[in-house]
Amino acid sequence: MTATPAPADRYCVFGNPIAHSKSPDIHAAYAAQTGHAVQYEKRLAPVDGFAAAVHAFIAEGGKGANVTVPFKLEAVKVANALTIRAQAAGAVNTLHFTEDGIIGDNTDGAGLVADIVGNAGMQIGGRRVLLLGAGGAARGVVLPILEHRPAQLVIANRTVATAQALADQFAALGGDGVVSACGYLEIDGAFDLVINATAASLTAELPPVPATVFAPGALALDMMYGKEPTVFLQFAASHGAAVRDGLGMLVEQAAEAFAVWRGVHPDTAPVLQSLRAQL
């Protein structure tokens, strides 16, 4: 008599909107690759009903969830405990449902750094890094960048006070004079790595940065992705930078989340290659 296979563990991604999400495809590939019985779905949560949606999924037997726009700040409140990187980011993109409660984590920054170092082959240590934006997307990546010991991290933002508050939060971790903040028009010098963490690319706008920010051999990365390069990446390429969109970050942060839940880190290269071919 053949034994009945154990039911798959259930995971999902919460967002609003959520129809466009590639997360189910990514996690299905990771599950197949690692031999884990995982069922992963998209869940549209009401804008005013995120916490209820999370608890309903737990009641259905859910083991964990990813969280995307606009719920990453609300997910902080839903969690019973936060990892150090979630505390630093002030935002949660990964929820792990355990016997002791809901653990909130943030894998966005680790995913970005893994893409830059592992996939793009650029070492962050000793480099000058410019981070454009000081909102939720930027907050999540400051700690992982600083862990790689850049020579300088400048956070530039339209509202300087917001950038300065973020720089102040991490100043001690970076060391003497490593982390600083400014407005876009005050950006000084050239950088080895320029990261666009603003939402400007969603509306085909360009952050008002001078063309001189790109050092020879610079890498420009936009957290957005699509079939065509964003306006920011077109601008960067026209001024000599190598360019990279946010698809690698998406794949890498998903692998980090999978590792949080399942205890194994999948191989991201074939999944990224497959998704890239589908764009």
Mind explaining what this structure looks like?
The protein has 279 residues and is α/β, with parallel strands linked by helices. Helices cover 38% and strands 23% of the residues. It has ten helices and twelve strands. It has helices spanning 23-34, 50-59, 74-78, 84-89, 108-119, 136-146, 160-174, 231-238, 247-262, 269-278, and strands at residues 9-15, 38-44, 62-67, 81-82, 94-98, 101-105, 128-132, 152-156, 179-182, 191-196, 214-222, 242-244. Strands 2-1-3-5-6-4 form a six-stranded mixed β-sheet, with helices on both faces. Strand 1 (9-15), helix 1 and strand 2 (38-44) form a beta-alpha-beta unit. The mean pLDDT is 95.
Largest sheet composition: 6 strands, mixed
N-to-C SSE series? EHEHEHEHEEHEHEHEEEHEHH
Radius of gyration: 19 Å
Strand order of the largest sheet: 2-1-3-5-6-4
SS class: alpha/beta
Q: Mean of residue pLDDT?
A: 95
Portion of residues in helices? Answer: 25-40%
Strand content: 15-25%
Low-pLDDT residue intervals, each spanning 5 or more residues? none
Gap between N and C termini: 45 Å
Quick recap:
Helix 1 links the parallel strand 1 and strand 2.
List keywords for this structure.
6-stranded parallel β-sheet, alpha/beta, 10 helices, 279 residues, 6-stranded mixed β-sheet
